[in-house]
Amino acid sequence: MSETDTRRGGGVDPKLLEILVCPLTKAGLRYDADRQELISDQARLAYPIRDGIPIMLIDEARQLADEEIQRR
Amino acid sequence: MQASTDQEKAPFGFREVAASEKHGLVQTLFDGVAQNYDLMNDLMSGGVHRLWKSAMLDWLAPRPGMTLLDVAGGTGDIAFRFQERGGGPVMVCDLTPGMLAVGRDRAIDKGRLTRFAEGGIDWVAGNAEQLPVADRSVDAYTIAFGLRNVTRIDKALAEAFRVLKPGGRFLCLEFSQVVLPVLDKLYDTYSFSVLPALGQYVAKDREAYVYLAESIRTFPPQEDLAARIRAVGFEMVSYRNLSGGIAALHSGWRL
């Protein structure tokens, strides 16, 4: 992944993912690189990453369909 | 508007709004002023906000490897200073994506690393009352001129406590109550006449700066805020007045 990609939204910092949690459940998140989303299976929410910035706001999250949820 | 959430009110300047409404209002307001936010801070305070922020960093005493969560610091003012003084990785968490975009672009212009993993600064949109941050994960939490805009202050303070590691430090820089007799009159005139006019000319947004002046007056004074910081579990809570109480710095430790 190029430098520009990581800055502008091509990836999420793995170290950041260690401390970033779902604001609702406080559980860890799953990164979906294709959709540019951070997924909280417990809360059934997908938080968008826009222009490289994770938008961890419940109001802005997408509701997950049943088939999208992964059980751990 | 929902009838159920309308019961709970929150101050938005001198107006009372439904608690559920406040964060949207704050978000809109800061999206509107994001581009001019730092310029306005300089004009409004005659540059003094830089001294206040510097005082905050003095008290925090950053050291290598120290991790910081800076809340409501979208344009990066605190994050950049923290790193210039030798601090470690920073997560900036702000309610308004527009403010974060300004900070992140500025970081890129300055050639700063933008990843937490590399000791850089990461930018995340989040609500201070519902932080997207794991329990006991950072060494320091700062909020500069942000707590005033939070709907439920006590909830934000409890969240600050939750995310700090034991031994972690909480610091809040906020406008406060002027403690000098003559200064308070001058300051009143300045806030309610000069500020909104400046806002109108420079940021083309008078209302945002009327809100600023009003929100300062509805924010709890020094002792009240200290008591509320203690109430969520912080210890060794203390505060310092800056510029005669125009601003105050509150500190607490999670022990």
TrEMBL record, chain A:
SUPFAM superfamilies: Trm112p-like. InterPro entries: Trm112-like. Transmembrane segments: none annotated. GO terms for cellular component: cytosol. Coiled coil: none annotated. Pfam families: Trm112p. Belongs to the UPF0434 family. This is UPF0434 protein AUP43_00600. It comes from Oceanibaculum pacificum. The lineage of its organism: Bacteria, Pseudomonadati, Pseudomonadota, Alphaproteobacteria, Rhodospirillales.
From TrEMBL, chain B:
Keywords: Menaquinone biosynthesis, Methyltransferase, S-adenosyl-L-methionine, Transferase, Ubiquinone, Ubiquinone biosynthesis. S-adenosyl-L-methionine binds at T75, D94, N127, A128. Pfam families: Ubie_methyltran. GO terms for molecular function: 2-methoxy-6-polyprenyl-1,4-benzoquinol methyltransferase activity; demethylmenaquinone methyltransferase activity. Pathway: Cofactor biosynthesis; ubiquinone biosynthesis; Quinol/quinone metabolism; menaquinone biosynthesis; menaquinol from 1,4-dihydroxy-2-naphthoate: step 2/2. Signal peptide: none annotated. CDD domains: AdoMet_MTases (cd02440). PROSITE patterns: SAM_MT_UBIE (PS51608), UBIE_1 (PS01183), UBIE_2 (PS01184). It comes from the Bacteria. GO terms for biological process: aerobic respiration; menaquinone biosynthetic process; methylation. SUPFAM superfamilies: S-adenosyl-L-methionine-dependent methyltransferases. Its EC number is 2.1.1.163, 2.1.1.201. The keyword Zinc-finger does not apply. It catalyses: a 2-methoxy-6-(all-trans-polyprenyl)benzene-1,4-diol + S-adenosyl-L-methionine = a 5-methoxy-2-methyl-3-(all-trans-polyprenyl)benzene-1,4-diol + S-adenosyl-L-homocysteine + H(+); a 2-demethylmenaquinol + S-adenosyl-L-methionine = a menaquinol + S-adenosyl-L-homocysteine + H(+). Transmembrane segments: none annotated. NCBIfam families: MenG_MenH_UbiE. Methyltransferase required for the conversion of demethylmenaquinol (DMKH2) to menaquinol (MKH2) and the conversion of 2-polyprenyl-6-methoxy-1,4-benzoquinol (DDMQH2) to 2-polyprenyl-3-methyl-6-methoxy-1,4-benzoquinol (DMQH2). PANTHER family: 2-METHOXY-6-POLYPRENYL-1,4-BENZOQUINOL METHYLASE, MITOCHONDRIAL, METHYLTRANSFERASE. Belongs to the class I-like SAM-binding methyltransferase superfamily. MenG/UbiE family. This is Ubiquinone/menaquinone biosynthesis C-methyltransferase UbiE. It comes from Oceanibaculum pacificum. The lineage of its organism: Bacteria, Pseudomonadati, Pseudomonadota, Alphaproteobacteria, Rhodospirillales.
